[in-house]
Amino acid sequence: MTDVLSRLGLRRMQPRDLAERHRVATPLELLFDLVFVVAVSQASQNLHHLISEDHVGQGVLAYLMVFFAIWWAWMNFTWFASAFDTDDWLYRLLTIVQMAGVLVLAAGIHAAMVEFDFLVVTWGYVIMRLAMVAQWLRAAASDRAARSTALRFAIGIALVQVLWVARLYLLDGSAAFWTFFVLVAAELAVPVWAESGGRTPWHPHHIAERFGLFTLLLLGESLLASANAMFDALAEGEHVPELLGLSASGLAVTAGIWWLYFAREQHGRLGSLTSGFRFGYLHYVIFAAAGAVSAGVEVEIDEITGHTEVSHAIAGLALTLPIALFALSAWAILLRPSVARWTSAAVVAGAVLIGLAGLLPAGEYVVAAVLLAAMVIVIEVDASRADRPESARPEV
């Protein structure tokens, strides 16, 4: 069997070593992430336009629905690659097929969010997921120890994709809407069922790095939105102080979000199956909030320049609520176990105040940036205190 694979230019898809040193993201994984940025950008832009046109509820709901497809397909590939990346031509080809699915999904995001027409998005998603079925079947054929788990993944994913396609053509109206969430639950259940047959050997350092890199790409959207504020100020020559203030605040917010996310090492918290599921699943909130920050900045630009139909409060909340949600979720998922109680209280209080800052009559983005900076200072003080030996700490 090995000789046949060798002649075809293939390798046996055996599990990677959990103790492998210097396990880092590959160039293929980085390219994979860049394709997903296209889909995230489309979702963020459509969220921005829907909020600015006073379709807030529709925009938020549609964004969260579309973002599930983006996040879930990305995360499933990331977890698989951490365990079974062979980097031969077939593995690369199947990964590129998934990239094609991402682009198809991105092409359908506008229709999905504006008209709730999920035809193109669903087919793009199914293309990505069926490529993963092929990867899992290859893993099942290559490794006896991982066969049960790999087959469970392949069967579970394939069955749910059949249901997604059936939903497109057999259901409409409220039935199609509510079954979306039923199938989301089914997707989330597949890894839990599959891993119960044996844990896949994903690498904690690799997983932590991959999630961090994707967070950086999402923050790039916020930087672009901040740059747009500056460009608009220079091009139009109107509302210059407000737009420059928003641009500076947007940069400070992006830096603060980055600081919060990377304030502590995360690989040590990925030692068990339960912690892995918690880390991966709850990142939906972190990623979705980070992606929405750029939409909030763009809505603020529209509000400053008079190109929106929503009130000042709605425009402000469009920016401050995603920042607050990111801060709360980053604290709950990444920071809470490693910071003091007073630090946790300060971070939670700061996040609540950031959210409420959207209701201020003016300068809400400046207040949000200042509060986020204060939150970062508190976390750094906590870190310096934790690093000091007990004898050097002042008595309290």
TrEMBL record:
Taxonomic superkingdom: Bacteria
InterPro entries xref list: Low_temperature_requirement_A (IPR010640)
Keywords annotated in UniProt: Membrane, Transmembrane, Transmembrane helix
Membrane-crossing residue ranges in chain numbering: 21-40, 60-81, 93-112, 118-137, 149-169, 175-193, 213-231, 243-261, 281-301, 313-335, 365-383
Keyword set includes Transmembrane: yes
Keyword Protease in record: no
UniProt name for this protein: Low temperature requirement protein LtrA
